Amino acid sequence: MQTRSPFGIALIGSGSALPDGILDNLALEQLVETSDEWISTRTGIRQRRLAQPQESLTPLAAKAAQRALAMADLQAADLDLILLATSTPDDLFGSAGAIQGAIGASHAVAMDLTAACSGFAFGLVTAAQFLRSGVYRNVLLIGADVLSRWVNWNDRGTCILFGDGAGAVVLQAIDLQEQPAASDALLGFELRSDGSMNHVLNLAGEAIEQPLKNGTVVGQGNFQPITMNGQEVYRFAVKRVPEAIEKALHRAERSIEQVDWLLLHQANQRIIDAVADRLGLPHEKTISNLERYGNTSAASIPIALDEAVRDGRIQPGQTLALAGFGAGLSWGAVIVRWGR
Q1: Digit-coded pLDDT (tens) for 231-287
Q2: Cys bridge to 119: 37, 115, 206, 241, which one at CB 3.0-4.6 A?
Q3: What pTM value is reported for the model?
Q4: C-alpha pair distances (Å), 259 with each of 254, 255, 262
């Protein structure tokens, strides 16, 4: 175990929400030089959900949050903290507060956390620290992104990958002294960053010169579309993610044989398969839904988690190895037990 705190955590609810708009590979054939076979063979993706121009991240995240609260049998007013893992807030100042208002979580502190596709894993560990300290009892963690807003639709290397969506989980503190039969659901974790590789995957800001009437020249903020070196990201992921999972398992005092499900960030099916192979885990124990949704960044793990909980694959008491990886570069693995 990584802590001796008198408090542990339980993951007690999940929810997800996706926009209705669907863009499949056949439609992409009309936009760039590609094919359904090329995309599906190299990525595993066949379609993705896209938010329409009138849609935004806040209502999508709020819907996922409400579904997670319903499963947890809690009201929004029961929440003490809301963490929003996102790289694409509606407001550059953050969207967690808007979500707090939308769901009526009047007692909750709300803040954004940005770690790109690793955001949900980083957020899960962050939420656990507030609960383990005894300061908060109920925390809502949301992973949500609308990366389609920041895609260059003429770049076939990136426009085929990304989709939009939101997923959420509710975490609750457990007093291990009052409940001696209970145990902490956060068994172990490993979080890492390598800023020297930041250039490999970017959604970069820039300042455009804007002269003012008095002759002063200021910089007007803007962002460039997503750029990515796909080969470098693949090499990074298949090397670093298994290492992080192994270290998290070591801290959890668990073996890979004790993992019921491997749930990685849904970036590429070849990455998921390669990581499972390096860990010696059967592919039947991996969870994947990127065929239907593509890469939804910080939302990908909680969306896949929610689907697997609701269709009965993930059962209470089962051990999950979760891992996110992406821009930063950042990566992290978390070993958790699902359920109360």
Answers
A1: 999 999 999 999 999 999 999 999 999 999 999 999 999 999 999 999 999 999 999
A2: 115
A3: 0.95
A4: 8, 7, 7
